[in-house]
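Table 4 source record.
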Amino acid sequence: ITAFARLTPEACQKLGLKPRPESRAGIKHEIYCRIVKKQLEDQGWTCKFEGQTGNDPHKMDVLAIKDGQRHDYEITVHLKNIQDNINNALGHKLADKVIIVADDKEIEKCRTRTADEQKRYGDALEFQPISEFYIK
């Protein structure tokens, strides 16, 4: 069983941590990232939450590395910057593959929004509903 907790701003201050803004989307995004990271680690991937490669400032939601492959798992709770994330990771060769993870009902919206990127990057762009990462 995995538990999630969000520290209050006061607790962050006492621990010397930067407080994170509270929002429903932010909490949902973080929980999804942790679910994906946990399942990938169980499959033998080494994962970095908000991972970066080299000196590039672009942070990937979950950077998974195994057998020389780098996969960028972009967790999408809204479509605001989905295309930028794909183009950053694949266009700058920061990852070999970008996997867009979203709610089951949002996957088709993701596919529609990224039709140009799908043509440009082909098999290097995948889509997986978050339900595929749930414990079965």
